[in-house]
Amino acid sequence: MAVADKFKGIIDFLTSGFDGKEDSIYGEMMEETEDYPTQGNYALNPSYTEQEEKPQNSKVITHPNFRGYEVMVCEPRSYEDSISIVKHLKDRKTIVLNLHLLDKEQALRIVDFLCGATHALSGNQQKIGDSVFIFTPNNVALSAESQKSKFLRDALWNQPQA
């Protein structure tokens, strides 16, 4: 009998929290619904109070690490300098690359490397002059006007007035 009494004690202990609903949250919820008339699940005249919204004094501030858009002019002296240029590009800096100090073979290697890195970072690149290129990160868009479109624009605006 001692074993049966122990099992009964354990079962009573485990189920003691489920005995009375009037002491639980369910009982409190039932008491609240009696304040106003209901029809089915609909409250006919609910009693509620509105809380005033406190105006938030939210001021927009800039991120402390944001220094704006930065443009770097780079004049590499060897192919090894291209690694530091890619690091600047990864830091979301626009790079203006001037290759006038390099021979044609090294300049071509650097441009190929930077074009690949820019493409991998979803950036943009464009030749803007003789041995001068621009590389931008993906948050900067490049747009260029071709010589033909400049000519058409100038021809349209410079027509004699009739």
Task: Write the topology of this structure.
Elements: H1 2-15, H2 25-32, E1 38-39, E2 42-43, E3 71-74, H3 81-90, E4 94-98, H4 104-120, E5 124-129, E6 132-136, H5 147-157
Parallel strand pairs: 3-4
Antiparallel strand pairs: 1-2, 4-6, 5-6
Helix pairs in contact: 3-4
Overview of this structure, please?
With 162 residues, the protein is an alpha+beta fold. The chain has a domain of 70 residues: SepF-like protein (Translation Initiation Factor IF3). The chain has a four-stranded mixed sheet with strand order 3-4-6-5, covered by helices on one side. Strands 1-2 form a two-stranded antiparallel ribbon. Helix 3 packs parallel to helix 4. The chain is elongated, with a radius of gyration of 37 Å. The mean pLDDT is 77.
